[in-house]
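Entry type: protein chain
Record version: 2
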Amino acid sequence: MANAVITGGTNGIGRSLAARLAREGHRVAVVGRSAAAPEGVELVRGDLSTIAGTAAVAEEVASRFDVVDHLVLGAGRYTRRREVTADGLEHSFALYAVSRFALVERLLPVLERSAAPVVVSLCGVAGLKGPGIQWDDLALSRGFRAFRAVSQGARAADLLGAGFADRHPGSAVRYVLHNPMFVDSGLGAQVGGLRGRALDVVAGWFARSTADAADQVHRFLADPPAVPFTASRAGTPIDPGRPEFDPATAARLYTVLEGVTASAR
């Protein structure tokens, strides 16, 4: 049996995946602010939007688990208006990029004690159009748009996966980027207004269920990839050589995030 930790696991895809893994007899912990975890699942309460909060979550996980076999990074939230965290970061970038970077780096020792460690990051996987990372304005203080914030965060999450093997050569960790595409996970409530209600209606007609999306992630955990880096969009493999996964750009992001997290200590 495996030990699994899931961020964003108190609702949506993460909750469905946590419940399934627990039913299969695995030890599972979900990270979130909610006090409600699925039956048979442990809760690690924490705030991943701040660097200190992410560090505290990593410390709590490491204190509970000698080994982590599966780390699923699913925390994310759509924000209509610009929000700045206690660290001066734009909220989406804090969740999609900074927390994922810090959590993986801090949990690497317990991940590498596993015989087959897997990190799955639910992110864009090179599917979002529009502006890329705003290197000179990561906090999006100029011309904030909700889609721009989500796009920047998702692109950064993609680069973290693409650059992991170069940052940690020889690591046994298999890093998977995965986008389940259109899922009925309650996004309409976050979007709000008429647009959000319309989104919920469309999702009810066409979107896959959270259980189906969780099944896509489960396959990577049950049968880890043989290669260090894998990208997938709704089950369709994505070429790891795409320009969106440029190694030099990934290395640049890692350097930036090192500086961001170091300055907050």
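Comment: The chain has eight helices and eight strands.
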